[in-house]
Specification:
Layout (H helix, E strand, L loop, with lengths): L1 H20 L4 H11 L17 H16 L6 H14 L17 E7 L9 E10 L2 E8 L4 E8 L7 E7 L3 E7 L8 E6 L11 E10 L2 E11 L2 E7 L8 E9 L2 E10 L2 E8 L8 E3 L8 E6 L5 E9 L2 E9 L7 E7 L8 E6 L14 E7 L5 E8 L3 E7 L8 E6 L12 E6 L5 E7 L5 E7 L8 E6 L2 H6 L1 E2 L4 E2 L5 H5 L5 E8 L5
Antiparallel strand pairs: 1-30, 2-3, 3-4, 4-5, 6-7, 7-8, 8-9, 10-11, 11-12, 12-13, 14-15, 15-16, 16-17, 18-19, 19-20, 20-21, 22-23, 23-24, 24-25, 26-27, 27-30, 28-29
Helix pairs in contact: 1-4, 2-4, 3-4
This protein binds heme C (HEC) and calcium ion (4 copies).
Protein name: FG-GAP-like repeat-containing protein
Keywords: Signal
Length: 511
C-alpha cells in the first residue's frame, strides 16, 4: 500500500505545516478546509501544487461548488482564510522529476512513420483486430478527421502499410470487435465520445458496424443521448448466451455513469451500476476466480478510485472499491487488467497524468502503479515509476527474458525540454521492481500504444499514435467550454507525426 500511505503521509505533514504557519487560527482554518473542501472530495494537501496556483484553484472550486449547488457554498471570508493557508504552506515550486536518459545496454528504438504528419494529430485509440492471412490489422480512431480507419500491412514491410476509412464517426474513442449477429464475421461496436471537453451534455453515442465482408460495414446507431461515452465492451453479462454491452460514461460537470445494457427480445434494457462522473473505462475480468465475470473501472475527476463490480450471476453486480488515490489532483488516466506478477490471478496496471483541469504543469506525482491481487479480494498498491503526464501503459515482455515489462506514454510533459520522453519502457527485474529506459524524445503527446513484432525479428516493437492534447488545450475556450483553433501562424505550418512504429534494434554486442 505504498501509494496510499504516501498520499496520507503528505497530508499529515501538510496539516502540521499549516499548524506551525499560523498558530492562532490554524485549527479553525483546517476545520474550514475540512468543512468546505472536504465535502466533495478528500481535502488535498497544499504540497500538490505550487503556491501561486492555489488561489485560482480555490476560486475555481468556489465557482464549481456554486454552479453545482445552485447557491454560494464557500463564504468569501472562508475562501480568504483557506487561500492564505494553502498559499502559506505550499512549496514555491513542485519537485522536478529526474531525467530518464540512460539507454538500455542492449535495446534501442528507431521510429518509422506510417503516415504523413498532420496539423493537430488526434489518434484517440488503436485497437488490434485478429490478423488476416499475412496482414496485421488495427483500427485507428482518428478524431482529427472524424473517422474510424483500418490500418493494415505485412510484418517486415512497413513502407507498404495502408489505411482505409471504415466509418465516419466524430470521436470514436473506443471500439470492441465481436460477431454480434452470428454470421461468422466480426462486427464492431464503437463508442462516440460526442465532444472533447468534459461536460454533462447527452452527446455520446454507440454505433454498431455490421461486417458485410470485403472491408464493408453497415453503420447503425445503437444507443444515443448518453453522456460522453469513454469505453464500451460487448460480452455476455448475465450468462444467458447473448451479447450485452458494458458502457462507461465519463461525462463531466458531476454527471456520468457506468451502465450495462441487457440484450432482450425487446431491445436493450438499461441497468445503471454507478452514477459518478469521470469513468475512464470498463473492462471485464474475473477478479475473485469464481468463474463469474466481474467489471473494473477507473474513475477520475474528484473520485480518483479503482472500482470493481463483482458479478453475482444473472446480471447482478456488487460494487467494491479497490483503491483510492485519496486526492483530486491524482489525475487518473488509464488502467488495464493484466497478470503482472504471473501468479495466475489478474492484477491491475494504472496510470495517472491528467493535468488539464485547473493547472496544466507536469506533476512529479504523475506516473505508473499497479495493484497486486493477493487473493480473497485483498489488494496491495505498488509504485512502478514517476513519469510526467503518464497516459497509457502496456505490459509486455520487451527484452525476451519471460517477465512482463511495461511501455508507457505521456500526453502532458515539459515538451520544450528535449530530454523529456514521449515514450519510455520499464524493465522488470522479475520481481516487479522496474528500471525506466527512454524510447523517444522526438515526438509530443504519443497516447495510444500497441506492442507487437512489426519488423519480424522476434523482438517487440511499438505502434503508437499522437494525440496533441497540448495543442487542443490551447484551443479550448474556457467560458463556453468549446474548442476553436486560433493557433498562431508559426504553429499552423508545423505538422507533427501522426502514426508511427518504434522498431526495436539490438545494439551490437561489442559496442
Ligand atoms: C462542490 C464540490 C466541491 C467542493 C466544495 C470543492 N471541490 Fe475541489 N473538486 C471538485 C470536483 C468535481 C473536482 C474535479 C473536477 C475538476 O477538477 O474540475 C475537483 C477537483 C479539485 C482539484 C483538482 C483540480 C485539477 O486540476 O485536477 C483540487 C486541487 C481541488 N478540487 C481542491 C479543492 C479545494 C482546496 C477546495 C476547498 C476550497 C475544494 N476543492 C472544494 C469538487 C469540489
Ligand atoms: Ca446476455
Ligand atoms: Ca468473479
Ligand atoms: Ca497476479
Ligand atoms: Ca522482460
Amino acid at each position: 500500500m505504498k501509494l496510499l500511505r504516501l498520499v496520507f503521509a503528505v497530508w499529515l505533514v501538510s496539516v502540521s505545516l499549516l499548524a506551525s504557519a499560523q498558530p492562532k487560527s490554524s485549527k479553525e482554518i483546517v476545520a474550514l478546509v475540512q468543512q468546505y473542501c472536504g465535502s466533495c472530495h478528500t481535502a488535498p494537501s497544499p504540497q500538490l501544487l505550487p503556491k501561486a496556483s492555489w488561489p485560482p484553484v480555490i476560486d475555481a472550486m468556489a465557482e464549481l461548488a456554486e454552479r453545482r449547488l445552485g447557491q454560494p457554498f464557500i463564504p468569501p471570508e472562508a475562501q480568504h482564510h483557506i487561500k492564505a493557508l494553502y498559499y502559506g504552506s505550499a512549496p514555491e515550486k513542485l519537485a522536478v522529476l529526474p531525467y530518464i536518459d540512460e539507454s538500455h545496454p542492449r535495446i534501442r528504438f528507431a521510429p518509422t512513420q506510417l503516415s504523413a504528419p498532420t496539423l493537430v494529430p488526434q489518434i484517440m485509440a488503436i485497437t488490434p483486430l485478429p490478423p488476416r492471412e499475412d496482414q496485421l490489422r488495427f483500427l485507428v480512431s482518428d478524431a482529427e478527421t472524424g473517422e474510424l480507419r483500418l490500418l493494415s500491412g505485412k510484418v517486415g514491410d512497413l513502407d507498404a502499410w495502408q489505411e482505409q476509412t471504415v466509418a465516419k464517426i466524430a470521436l470514436p474513442v473506443a471500439v470492441d470487435s465481436l460477431d454480434m449477429n452470428g454470421d461468422g464475421l466480426d462486427d464492431l461496436v464503437v463508442a462516440d465520445l460526442g465532444e472533447l471537453p468534459p461536460n454533462g451534455n447527452p452527446s455520446g453515442r454507440v454505433y454498431l458496424l455490421l461486417n458485410k465482408g470485403k472491408g464493408q460495414y453497415e453503420q447503425r446507431l445503437l444507443v444515443e443521448k448518453l453522456g460522453r461515452v469513454s469505453d464500451i465492451n460487448a460480452l455476455d453479462l448475465d450468462q444467458d448466451g447473448d451479447i450485452d454491452l458494458a458502457i462507461a460514461v465519463f461525462g463531466g460537470q458531476g454527471k456520468g455513469e457506468i451502465l450495462w445494457l441487457e440484450n432482450t427480445a425487446k431491445g436493450y434494457q438499461t441497468h445503471q451500476l454507478l452514477g459518478l462522473s469521470g469513468a475512464l473505462n470498463i473492462d471485464d475480468t474475473d477478479l475473485n476466480g469464481d468463474g463469474i465475470v466481474d467489471l473494473v473501472t477507473l474513475v477520475a475527476q474528484e473520485h480518483e478510485t479503482l472500482i470493481a463490480f463483482m458479478g453475482k450471476g444473472k446480471g447482478v453486480f456488487e460494487r467494491q472499491d479497490l483503491v483510492s488515490a485519496g486526492h483530486p489532483m491524482f489525475g487518473a488516466t488509464s488502467m488495464s487488467v493484466v497478470d503482472l506478477d504471473r501468479d495466475g490471478d489478474p492484477d491491475i496496471l494504472f496510470t495517472n497524468g491528467d493535468a488539464f483541469d485547473t493547472q496544466t504543469d507536469p506533476k512529479p506525482y504523475h506516473g505508473l502503479q499497479w495493484l497486486e491481487n493477493k487473493g480473497k479480494m485483498q489488494f496491495a498498491a505498488y509504485d512502478i515509476g514517476r513519469y510526467y503526464g503518464a497516459v497509457n501503459a502496456q505490459a509486455t515482455d520487451m527484452d525476451g527474458d519471460g517477465d512482463l515489462d511495461i511501455v508507457a506514454s505521456s500526453w502532458v510533459n515539459d515538451w520544450d525540454d528535449p530530454k523529456r520522453n514521449a515514450l519510455i519502457w520499464y524493465e522488470n527485474n522479475g520481481r516487479q521492481s522496474f528500471t525506466p529506459y527512454p524510447i523517444s524524445q522526438a515526438y509530443r503527446g504519443l497516447v495510444p500504444l500497441v506492442v507487437a513484432d512489426f519488423s519480424g525479428d522476434g523482438a517487440a516493437d511499438i505502434l503508437t499514435g499522437s494525440f496533441r492534447m497540448d495543442l487542443l488545450h490551447q484551443g479550448l475556450k474556457r467560458d463556453d467550454n468549446t474548442l476553436s483553433f486560433n493557433l498562431d501562424r508559426s504553429e499552423q505550418g508545423e505538422k507533427s507525426g501522426r502514426l508511427m512504429i518504434f522498431v526495436s534494434q539490438e545494439r551490437a554486442e561489442q559496442e
